[in-house]
Give the backbone structure.
Amino acid sequence: MSETPVYVLECRDLSKSYRQGPQRLLVLDNVNLQLRQAEHLAIVGRSGSGKSTLLHLLGGLTDSDQGTVLVNGINLTAASASERAKIRNQKIGFVYQFHHLLPEFSALENVAMPLLLGNMERRFAYNRAEKMLESVGLLSRASHRQAELSGGERQRVAIARALVTRPALVLADEPTGNLDSESAEQVFQLMRALSQQHRTAFIVVTHDESMANTMHRSLRLVDGKFSDQSS
Ligand SMILES: Nc1ncnc2c1ncn2[C@@H]1O[C@H](COP(=O)(O)OP(=O)(O)O)[C@@H](O)[C@H]1O
Ligand SMILES: [Mg+2]
């Protein structure tokens, strides 16, 4: 019996261009990618090489010109807006360079938010959010708002928020770009440990080559394509 492997994430012939006045800027040129369960992939590349654009497409936040994105075998490209939102909420976690925590809410409330948005009952959501905050070492900061957290702590809260729904995949766009090297290393260690524990796949865009080398695989975007492949 032959079985087609279902990747956590797969994109096929993904292309994206932006219109700039009369010209078109081709940012991604037929990109293909397959990510296995619990795999850690780094994406590196110069500023402007299309890394953020690719993550947005993979997360279903932007439309491509051409190509398909499949999350757990489900075609995100063909899904309706509401189906897409559901897949995003249930299957994918996002971490950004600038954490994007909601400033008026506490760390705990921020972590519980994706569960509440997914209609989980409050007491279950807060219970799970507490456990997640504990696993990033920040239970003692549960009631702190972002202004009362350090940069590294904010990113750890953002990681807890990304993982709280137990997604199959986390997409992180330069999550340590704004941190000193010690906090950055701590954040990377945490991502690796938690993804192993939860069997979560990770794609991390990073400028930091040494961090990229700690992942299972590292791909470089050059001229809209992956230039090298090492595993
Ligand atoms: N919304 C947009 N409209 C037009 N051009 C854009 C837009 N977003 C990004 N770009 C351009 O696309 C290229 C890739 O951008 P981006 O994906 O942000 O690169 P990276 O994250 O690797 O720095 C850049 O040249 C950028 O100026
Ligand atoms: Mg970027």
